[in-house]
Amino acid sequence: MQDRLRILEDLNMLYIRQIALSLQDTDIQKKIDHELRMREGACKLLAACTQREQALEATKSLLVCNSRIMAYMSELQRMKEAQVAQRTARRPSDAGPMDDRLPCRGKVCVSDLRIPLMWKDTEYFKNKGDLHRCAVFCLLQLGVEIYDTEMVLVDRTLTDICFENGVLFTEAGPDFELKVELYSAGLEEDSALGSTPKKLASKLSSSLGRSSGKRLRAALDGAPGSPVIPVALALPCAPGGPKYHLLAHTVLSLAEVQDSFRTHDLAITSNEESSFWLPLYGSMCCRLAAQPYCMAQQMMCGFLKLQVSLHPSLERLCWGGHGHGASLHWGARPSFPAGMSRAQTPRAWPPGCLGGCGVTLPLPLLAGQWKQCCDELMKIEVPSPRKPPALLAKQGSLYHEMAIEPVDDIEAVTDILARRVTALELRPDLGCPPWLSLFEGPLLSASHASITSDTASASPSRSRQSWGRPRTLSLDARLSTLKGRAGKGPATALRPLAGPPHSSSSSSGSTTPESERQGRRPTRSPLDPRSCLQSQV
Amino acid sequence: MSYIPGQPVTAVVQRVEIHKLRQGENLILGFSIGGGIDQDPAQNPFSEDKTDKVNGWDMTMVTHDQARKRLTKRNEEVVRLLVTRHSLQKAVQQSMMS
Asked: Got a GO cellular component term for this one (chain B) (predicted)?
């Protein structure tokens, strides 16, 4: 089955590449390749990660990559169809109007996205029942531009789902359709359920209460109504991982654009039985702003033909437009270059200036298609680049952290570590934590080797190290006393770890190159490109 | 401490919080840094302390320039570091062994 999927996908890709080649469009092909590489990376990350938040983030990336690939492929197909339609047209007019004058593009920004929830009174106030949590995010698509919001964990302690970061689209036309989709993945607190064999699971679900049983079965099967991903893209690289399902969606367009917070309707595509279900109020609030490029940039530069009846005041005519409006520079001569940033109707001209002029503006007034966006320039803030998620949530960190306080007391540190090691010995099923390797044989021999090399070339490196660095004096004092006391450690029931290195040949073997390197250090001149960079901070 | 670049590393770290000093119109830390993933580790003049994190930003895979930038941000008055120290690690290991 997997092989068949692979073959289908390869054929798909081949077909797409052929289309791209025939269209002589390398741009979209490059984007597809990029997304394919991202997808590979996300699959690998998903297979390697151990924590739930990482798996959720990786699955989200996978979903976004798939959507983008789909969008690019559809765009290529559409372009191909248009090209074919052009070629096979009997008469030029058959192909439809090839209008060079497209309405100008613009920026569209969605920010302050908020989706209210509607928990039942009993759930919210009395805090009854198990805490049902979901991981949600929004996928926003405008044309071929697809962006995702950050992932938010939602449970009944929240009244709204809030997405802080805005999303900016840069290639929107006035007839844009912004699709917003809310995806949700149910998080069962007891993760052991995920690996329960099917028969046992169905027995369990039938013996549990009706609603929770249904929810459980839905979680294991995959709820009905989930979007059908095309066969070629349904990569089976996330077996047993979290699954996102479409919870609700809506489409926004120019009519909804306003320079303030507005409420829009959401179409909900799930039911209460699903594991990923959340009680949505049914609406979505956001600020949808649009800024046509003609409002902010110079769109045209050329000659403006004027048919004027000569009026003495014309020579002193100057156009003091609004800040973002047209800036016309007039001169005394009738023909002059003029740069315009927006076509304005004559009534906006300063009063008393013209008196009897007629102006023919040879510009297509296509800015008007953006309607209300042209009345006033909407402020769009470019959303700041998002920090990588691993750094925001402590649980999602790539670091296995184990805070040990107080940090100055070595004995306290070793006490805690020793206790953890004994605790782990009693639970062999938990496996070996990564930090245990720190106290095992091979690393110990490496550190011993470096100890000997340190003492061997003590003077040159030490003298340099003592220069001007802040040192925690108390810690250093402790360290020196502890080194003397290395023989007597905390008396705990500790199984002796691998002892000090036995073969002196290994330590001396590794000493020589190190001491050689260290010995060579003082002779390197600071201007040597191979010496290490230093910076004062 | 020996490690293979690209592989996960385990270390005993110490939290250090430094409040920057004001020198004229700049905020400085008052020490120098050396190294970075783009530098030759054998040439590192300061091999004693290694910085793992600065104010939450990972420093295990940064170039010298990136490290310098993260330590010298204008709007940050306090720098919180997670530092690994060879002597600390050795001492903990020795205590564990006995």
From this structure: fibrillar center
